[in-house]
Amino acid sequence: MEYPHIPFSPLHFTEAETLDRSKAFHDYMERRRSLRFFSDKPIPKEVIENIVMTASTAPSGAHKQPWTFCIVGDPAVKSKIKDAAEEEERESYGGRMSEEWLQDLAPIGTDWQKPFLEIAPWLIIVFKKAYEIEGGERRKCYYVNESVGIACGFLLAAIHQAGLVSLTHTPSPMNFLQRILDRPENERPFLLIPVGYPAEGATVPDLRRKTLDQVSVWW
What is the model's pTM? Predict the structure, then answer.
């Protein structure tokens, strides 16, 4: 076996500790919000490295880990990404999106302008690998969307854990990211995530998350 089995080292908590930890983590994650107003305050590269490696602990189909995290801090590259993203967003808001979609977005107050793509000190662009290339041969990846989606969830949790804020940005189409970042043919852009500190006086929509009864069914 390429991955021989080794003893598992579980964490050990009492039932009360387990309950307390689950409640504390929920309370902490309940404070996580998507933000559109970023500070340009710098963040050490090592912080972003730790966040990315946390995301990369996510499970994946056949352990293929079909993701690449492209981290952009260069102002010139961020500017190119912002310009290209706004061009696509202008088209989307100007005709690509359905009227229903625009109505659903209206309460949140978004538009085609994305200044945060230049202001945030880091952009993390997550690419999914449609397939691998090993020794010049094309190898299949499994459950790619599911695997990369889980990794992005870990990424957002790690960003929040570090006391930072983020936004899941998905300009459509996102092919410009593959071009600007010169990614290989087997990689496809999945999410564009600015990361930073909140701007002074930053605001968020006064949203309400669904209740337990609305998101779960028990047997």
Answer: 0.93
* Share in percent of the chain as helix, strand, coil (round to 5): 40, 20, 40
Amino acid sitting at position 18:
T
Q: Select the CATH number that applies to the domain covering 34-200 from these four: 3.40.109.10, 3.30.70.2190, 3.20.20.140, 1.10.357.10.
A: 3.40.109.10
Query: How does pLDDT run along the chain (219 residues), one tens digit per residue?
Result: 588 899 999 999 999 999 999 999 999 999 999 999 999 999 999 999 999 999 999 999 999 999 999 999 999 999 999 999 999 888 888 888 888 988 888 888 788 889 999 999 999 999 999 999 988 889 999 999 999 999 999 999 999 999 999 999 988 889 999 999 999 999 999 999 999 999 999 999 998 999 999 999 999
